[in-house]
Amino acid sequence: MIPSLPHGGTARHLGGSGIRRDAQSLLGMAPCQKLVFQAQGRFLPGRLSQLKTKAKFGPSPSGRARQWLCLRDRRPPVGAAAAPLAPQGSGWPSCSSGRRDGSTGRPGHRTPGLPVKAPMEMWTNSTERFYRIPEGKGPHSVGCTDLMTENAVEGSFLRLYYPACDATDTEEARWIPDREYYQGLSDFLNMYRIVGERLFHYYVGSVTCPAKSNAAFKPGEKYPLLIFSHGLGAFRTIYSAICIEMASQGFIVAAVEHRDESASATYYCKRRSVSESREESTSNMEKEWIYYRKLKTGEEERCLRHKQVQQRAQECIKALNLILKISSGEEVTNVLHSDFDWNSLKDSVDTSRIAVMGHSFGGATVIESLSKEIRFRCGIALDVWMLPVGDDIYQNSVQQPLLFINSEKFQWADNILKIKKLISNDTNKKMITIKGSVHQSFPDFTFVSGGIIARFFKLKGEIDPNEAIDISNHASLAFLQKHLSLKKDFDKWDSLVDGIGPNVIPGSNIDISPAEPE
After folding, report:
1. How many Cα atoms are found within 13 Å in the side-chain-facing hemisphere of 196?
2. Where are the alpha helices (DSSP H) in 158-270?
3. 439 included as an active-site residue
């Protein structure tokens, strides 16, 4: 969700704070944790007296600020269920935990994609409201389920969001389904896993997304299909606010979890050794984890990211083929053995109405996917990171309509110049900017964090996060209606696509005019 720094390794376009200061700031916000910041930007167990609590709050925070600083002040309200030590109900009871750590490289490196910093508070005290991911605003209830094919890294892995039958007895899906994702986030943020896992679990371990897990699919019509690509350091569940809104408006959405080592964490299920007794194991499958790979010393980032975006595009196309295969009535084996009835998806996809969407590194994946697959009739790139895109893309290889929706605070001149080069004079390619928004206005982290911590870590911008995501979703729906020939009322938001309306501007806020000679 946060592309790597394309200009000299600074953190300017990530909000102006470097990795070391971010870590120090986290210490300042959690003085009750026995942590000590080291120069490498990591955390170690240590003495409470060694902690510094100055950060932006000053040397002696008081009143409301102290509530945000101290973990012991963040208890759930009376009667609220406590989060389990490890997330339960992940939907993969047949897989136990294995591990493959693919993270190597120089410490402190950052790239676009995920919330580049700390965990968020679910609770501030016993009386304040609970922060949660917004529900879909469309006419459909929303369900979600996970699909994994093949017992190998080459298979597909995605979360499917879809219009669902109303079901009051079905539980909402857990937002972050496995503790290994906490570990991956910790690696990505240069925190020791033992610390990061506990912090993430404490703050977001009980968070659910407003989609019913394995709810019955709503039959009766053919739905347009949207493939979604996550950003760097993210994974398939982190953009649920966008995916749920699209599903509530009548789309089937397949959110791919990429296995190119750009996700914080992902996994596949592999068979255990044939010599291992089944009686001694609950299953003959185990999870093989793949973690985010950092740049190696001396490695050129553009080469790595270009290679990754090629794989990402192929994974999006593979997901498209998989969903169309299911819709055609072919049987597909889901390694995860969920309770969802995949036969209910037969004849559910409108094969003439297919689009691709993604954020940051996922935006670059959108462009690459459009250039490779004409069945994608259009694409939407949210706050795109253009570094991974190859030079060949600019040679008229993307013919489909394309909408760029940018945040105000993330973009920089070189990135905008590349976007404009791709747009050229094509009237079906548009760019707009949401005023007051930041790079993290698109992922879910902006909704599960309170105002002070969210703004401190650039998880929220000046604009209300719900308004920002509404602008993005409405512009996306209007664009999709036009270019997928949908018979909906999304055209009421057509003006947003042209950058007309409150808190939106046409083009970019970045000045790309050449500097005047002195």
Report:
1. 22
2. 179-188, 193-204, 240-248
3. yes
Task: Report yes or no on 393 lying in a domain.
Answer: yes
The structure tokens listed for 49 are 């007296």
Backbone angles phi, psi at 301, to 5 degrees: -65, -40
Provide the domain count of the chain: 1
Q: Are 243 and 161 in contact (CB under 8 A)?
A: yes
360 is catalytic: yes
- If DSSP codes are grouped into helix, strand and coil, which group holds residue 421? helix
Q: How many CB atoms lie within 10 A of CB 394?
A: 14
Write down the number of H helices and E strands in the chain: 11, 16
Taking the CA atoms of residue 210, residue 214, residue 220 and residue 226 in that order, the dihedral angle to the nearest 10 degrees is: 60
Which CATH number goes with the domain that contains 472? Answer: 3.40.50.1820
Please give the chain's pLDDT, 518 residues, in tens: 544 333 333 333 333 333 333 332 332 233 233 333 333 343 333 333 333 333 332 333 333 333 333 332 333 433 444 433 333 333 333 343 444 344 333 333 334 544 443 333 333 332 234 579 999 999 999 999 999 999 999 999 999 999 999 877 789 999 999 999 999 999 999 999 999 999 899 889 999 999 999 999 999 999 999 999 999 999 999 999 999 999 999 999 999 999 999 999 999 998 876 555 444 344 678 999 999 999 999 999 999 999 999 999 999 999 999 999 999 999 999 999 889 999 999 999 999 999 999 999 999 999 999 999 999 999 999 999 999 999 999 998 999 999 999 999 999 999 999 999 999 989 999 999 999 999 999 999 999 987 676 767 789 999 999 999 999 999 999 999 999 999 999 999 999 999 999 999 999 999 998 766 65
Among residues 141, 229, 360, 407, which one is catalytic?
Answer: 360
Q: Which of 187, 383, 444, 470 is catalytic?
A: 383
Q: Which of 359, 439, 474, 483 is catalytic?
A: 439
Cβ(90)–Cβ(96) below 8 Å: no
Q: Tell whether 48 is covered by a domain.
A: no
65 in a domain, yes or no? no
The CA distance from 471 to 478, in Å, is 11
Q: List CB contacts of 72: < 8 A, sequence separation 6 or more.
A: 32
| 79 within some domain | no
- CA dihedral defined by 408, 403, 254, 99, rounded to 10 degrees? -50
**Is residue 101 annotated as part of the catalytic site, yes or no?**
no
pTM for this entry:
0.78
